[in-house]
Amino acid sequence: MTLIPELTILQPADKEGIDQPRTSEDELAVGKKRLYIESYGCQMNFADSEIVAAVMRNAGFATTSTAEDADLIFLNTCAIRDNAEQKVRNRLKHLTGLKRQKPELLVGMLGCMAERLKTKLLEEEKVVDIVAGPDAYRDIPKLVEEAESGQKAVNVFLSREETYADIAPIRLNSNGVTAFVSIMRGCDNMCSFCVVPFTRGRERSRDPHSIVRECQDLFDQGYREVTLLGQNVDSYKWTETAEESAPQPASAVTFANLLERVAQIHPDLRIRFSTSHPKDITDEVLFTMARYDNICKYIHLPAQSGNSRVLKLMNRTYDRPWYIGKIDRIREILGQDCGISTDMISGFCTETEEEHQESLSLMDYVRYDYAYMFAYSERPGTLAAKKYADDIAEDVKKRRLNEIIARQLEHSAQRNQRHIGQVQRVLIEGPSKRSDAELCGRNDQNKMVVFPRGQYQKGQYVNVLVTECTSATLRGEIV
Ligand code: SAH
Ligand code: SF4
Ligand code: F3S
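That is the input. Now the predicted structure with S-adenosyl-L-homocysteine docked in place:
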């Protein structure tokens, strides 16, 4: 779900990479205990860390951006691939050293790896004091108290209702311009390779009123872009009571309705969303996108594979022609310029060379703007782990992955080149990575655009004439 194109193409593994520091210094920290949170994995995890920070502030903890200063360290973990878990294990080694110097330090594991491994984590990693799954964050202050009294503390119960709708997240490490807003939790899809349904539980949608309120508050605070987050946003669904929907009669709120409500907050508030599932994205969503200029013309529509037999084994519930039909429909309704990205997995169980070629040919057909690309990593407990042998050799998976990456680099470069000579509306996010004399921000299609600073500042919209590009970035001048 992470949308960091310039990292993605060059280093696909960075999707679940750590993005430090994630915590901002709390101005009111004097005399308070200090919490340091490090987040791994998808944007939903990063958004969850902001909820955890809010819960902990109520319990008297201030956040700090240095692990060495903290009384309490949380790792909000990811379990999507084995290497995501290995990264966390390595980090725990470092924390073991820290704890030796400071024995009163408490270490908590949150998120998907915590949920997957449960109490086993306490046995395997002695440095860990607290284990809390994604639906247990309201309980964390109590778990911390238990840990402070010298016991190990665990809560990994998954909920059918929890959406943290009433908790106002504390924006961590924010640029003050763009923010993530969770609109649902969990996933009911059961793709055979995927651990998420086990780590995040059943799918549930968040009250639309609380979503609109959060987006409105963000706009009032100066934010100009919200990304609505869910594992499968197109299956968002909320049934309003008659009272809530008055003066209209009670009705179901779909993702398209929600998009429209958020888009109506203000024309200067941009809306993005992730992730769309090819089986669920509707014409209604595409038409809503077309109707509102402030809904960005960019869709992340993960294919995973270009071959129908593999897609069936993956339990994605669509085949190649269906997927192509969705792409055609997007371009019919939103035009050729709509940005489209994908996730691709190489070397899934029993994938043949010809089937891998079909992933490449699907990429040729679509010409994605970006892709997040991975070698298949078997996850214990998933349907694929139970039913199919992980029978593609690692070097073959890697070679296929490299072919997929190389193909995507070509396509990204081509898709970027077509912006040369165009004037793009860009929301300024801050100074560019390389130089303070430059600013950067994204265009509608989520591409990073870099340009000379001039008199402008973050949070403003500017029109930029694109003059050059790489496969990762566009460059230009404000006009
Ligand atoms: N809900 C989103 C994806 C969430 S996980 C969706 O349905 O598209 C993000 C991506 O990680 C997936 O799209 C998939 O490409 C990849 N992924 C998930 N499990 C994986 C595994 N076991 N091995 C390799 N990649 C995996
Ligand atoms: Fe995993 Fe599939 Fe759900 Fe995405 S839709 S989170 S890939 S089970
Ligand atoms: Fe996200 Fe990783 Fe969990 S991708 S949902 S943090 S397994």
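The pocket of iron/sulfur cluster (ligand 2) is lined by residues 187, 189-191, 194, 196-197, 231-232, 277 (CB under 6 Å).
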